[in-house]
C-alpha cells in the first residue's frame, strides 16, 4: 500500500502502486512494489518530447520550452504563450492536433463568467507540446499534417531518445489523450530517464526552463510544481497517476498509482523524499504542507491522504 485515505478516523480508501528511487548514475537506491510493470508514460515524458522539438529547430526560449513540457491548466498565461508560439512561426490554432477542450478548474469558471463558453484546442493541457512539435516541423520542412502519427520523422526521433534514456529497446504504442503517440515504460525505466534528465548536461536547457517556471509547466497548486519550488529539481506528472521527479545532485524518483488516482502522489513522493534524506527538515515540513490532500466534511477537514509507503532500501 502506498497511501490510505482517512475520514473521521476511519480508513475509507487505499491506494497501491510502485516507487523507484535512483541516484545520479541511474542506480537503484530504494523501491516499493512492482517497479517493472508496464504502463503508458503519457505526459510524464514531455520533457523529452520538448528536447526533441528544440533539437529539431523549434527555437524555444525558456518560457516556451517550459510550455512545451507542460500539462497546463488553460490559465491566461498558458493560452497566450501557446498562441505566441504558433503565431511567430506562421501557424494558427487550426494547425493544432489537440482535440477541443476546456480549461480546468478555476480557469474554466473564469471563462464561463466571461461568457466564453466554447472549448478550443488551445485550451487542451498538451497544446504547448503540440505548438513546439509544429514549430519543429516548420524548421525541418516536414509536413505538419500528420505530425502526431508514430511514423512521422519527429515522433521517430522522440522514440529513439526515449529508448536511449529509459534503456528500453521495445515499447507498446498507444494514443495519448492529445492524439500524439504514447509509449509504455515502467517505474524503473521512468526513474532511469529522470535521473538522466536531472543530471546529464544534454538536458540542461529543459531542466532550467522547468525549474524556473514550474507553474507554466503544471499550473497552480499542483504537486509537480511544488516539488520544483521546494527543491533544486523538476517534476512532471502523467495521466493515470504517474510522475517523474529529478533533483540535481541527488537523483530521481518515479511513481505509478495502480488505480490511476493522482491524489496520493503529492503526499507519497514527499514522504519518499524525506525517507531517503533528500530534504532539509524545514523544507520537508513546508513541502508536506504544500502537498497535503485534506478530506472535507461539512465544510471542515475531517481526514487526509496519508502516505504509508515503506521503501526497500538497496
Count helical runs.
12
Terminal CA distance reads 19 Å
Indicate the radius of gyration in whole angstroms. 19 Å
- Number of DSSP strands? 13
What low-confidence regions span 5 or more consecutive residues with pLDDT below 50?
none
Q: And the CATH topology?
A: Beta-lactamase
Instruction: Label the overall shape.
Output: globular
- Number of spatially distinct domains: 1
Helix content: 25-40%
Largest sheet entry: 6 strands, antiparallel
Strand content is 15-25%
Q: What is the average per-residue confidence, as pLDDT, rounded to a whole number?
A: 94
The assembly state of the depicted protein chains is single chain
Strand order of the largest sheet: 8-9-10-3-4-13
In CATH, the architecture is: 3-Layer(aba) Sandwich
Q: Give the class-level CATH name.
A: Alpha Beta
- The secondary structure category is alpha+beta
Explain the overall architecture:
Helices cover 39% and strands 22% of the residues. The protein is built from twelve helices and 13 strands. A six-stranded antiparallel sheet has the order 8-9-10-3-4-13, sandwiched between helices. It has one domain (3-313): 3-Layer(aba) Sandwich (Beta-lactamase), CATH 3.40.710. The two termini are 19 Å apart. The protein has 314 residues and is an alpha+beta fold.
